[in-house]
Every structure is written in C-alpha cells, then in structure tokens.
C-alpha cells in the first residue's frame, strides 16, 4: 500500500486498487462525470457504481474524459458495477450486465457484484455472474452486503467463489466476525460508506487521533480501513476532498490508535440491514 495505484490480489489472480471512488447518490449528469474525471486525473484507478444508482452513463463519460486527460488506457482502470435486485435471475442477470456495459460505454467490467442478498434469488443470479465470468465477459465477480450465512449458503452450490464482499464498514460498524470469515475464505472485503455519510467526521475521539498525525478525520478513517485489510471507496464530488481522501499512503496508524478506533464500534448501521430489507 504505497500509493493510489497499489493493489490487492483477489482470489482469481486479478488486481484491485486498495482505494477508489464511489458514486452512490451522485446524480446522473455533469456532477458525476466531473467527479469521475477528477478522480482519474488525480491518480485514482478504481471507480465503483451500480445500476440502481442511475448514473452509469455519466460515470462512463467521466471515465472516457479522465482517461484522455490522464493519458491512460482502459486496462489501467478497475471499474465495478452491480446487478440490481429486480434483475436477479439467470437470463435477466446476463441481460442487465449488457445494459450496464452499454450505459457505461465499456466492453467489460473488472468487477460485477450481486447488490443485495435477495432471499430465494441470489443463487440463480450468481449462476448468471458465473456464466459471464466463465465466458470471459467480466474479469471478476463478487457480492455486496452478504452476511456469513449468505456466503456459506451461496458457496455451498457455487462453482466460483466470490472475490469480493462489499459491505457497510466504518468505526461504528466493524463487523469483525464477518471480516474474519472473509479472510479465512480468501474473500476480499470492501467498505462502502466508510465515513458514515459524513457522520463519523464529527467523532471527538477521531478528531483527537487525526490531530496527532496532522491529518483529517476522513484520512484517519480511510487509513484505518486500509490497515485492517479492507478496500475502500469513499464517495465525494468535491475536488478538494477527492484529492484529500487519496492522501492516506504517507502515514501509518499505531496499533494503539487502530484499537481505539475499532473500540468505537456500536454495531450501528447507516444503511439497510442485509437480514431485513424489502427491496
């Protein structure tokens, strides 16, 4: 983990950047395009979107503008999108992947995820992702918001193990048992909402730790993610914060500070509960 281009090797041998840009709740249009372009120009190589975000077209435009401005090729980037719950099925899942590619203007994705563990449907949807992977249409496949029992159930009948489990993860929701399970099974964890939609930035304990390192609270949280072996994708549309969020490779938190941050856990979510959602 030396810089923004540093990667982790996934269980299928592909390389994923440790830090990327998330675009959840970024409206389709110039804002999304500019955020993605800004990130790429400033060294980001990983962009995470989803069909349900409704911004794949603008993200695709930002990717094209960013590549041109940064003088890089598609192979230098790691692009993720997700299969939405309404399309969980074999044929519908394959078709939805094609729709995402068309909207993004890409020939392939580096990572395609099942967005939520929809009961009774995620196994069939996973078969669609396995087909896409074995057919060479996608570099890697994984899941999002899966708990331990979901992963155990999925892997029991799967031909391919997920490479990634993208979960809500931040100092108030450390999910240590889930992280341990994923490590034991060589599934890379990835954090969405690492800053709790900004709520975590007001924590007194985190402000005190940040002052010690002359860093922002956001930088400390992102560094805590990385040192725990968790890939992270903070969302921002502000150029200054996009750049600031990337400046987390020039310091290291002490073990004491790491433990103090982890101790802030309250098992508190800012997003839906994967065991109790209705969409």
Automatic annotation (TrEMBL):
<dbReference type="GO" id="GO:0016616">
    <property type="term" value="F:oxidoreductase activity, acting on the CH-OH group of donors, NAD or NADP as acceptor"/>
</dbReference>
<feature type="active site" description="Proton donor">
    <location>
        <position position="53"/>
    </location>
</feature>
<keyword id="KW-0560">Oxidoreductase</keyword>
<feature type="site" description="Lowers pKa of active site Tyr">
    <location>
        <position position="82"/>
    </location>
</feature>
<comment type="similarity">
    <text>Belongs to the aldo/keto reductase family.</text>
</comment>
<protein>
    <submittedName>
        <fullName>Glyoxal reductase</fullName>
    </submittedName>
</protein>
<dbReference type="InterPro" id="IPR018170">
    <property type="entry name" value="Aldo/ket_reductase_CS"/>
</dbReference>
<feature type="binding site">
    <location>
        <position position="115"/>
    </location>
    <ligand>
        <name>substrate</name>
    </ligand>
</feature>
<dbReference type="InterPro" id="IPR023210">
    <property type="entry name" value="NADP_OxRdtase_dom"/>
</dbReference>
<feature type="domain" description="NADP-dependent oxidoreductase">
    <location>
        <begin position="20"/>
        <end position="266"/>
    </location>
</feature>
<dbReference type="InterPro" id="IPR036812">
    <property type="entry name" value="NAD(P)_OxRdtase_dom_sf"/>
</dbReference>
<dbReference type="Pfam" id="PF00248">
    <property type="entry name" value="Aldo_ket_red"/>
</dbReference>
<dbReference type="InterPro" id="IPR044500">
    <property type="entry name" value="AKR5G"/>
</dbReference>
<keyword id="KW-0521">NADP</keyword>
<dbReference type="InterPro" id="IPR020471">
    <property type="entry name" value="AKR"/>
</dbReference>
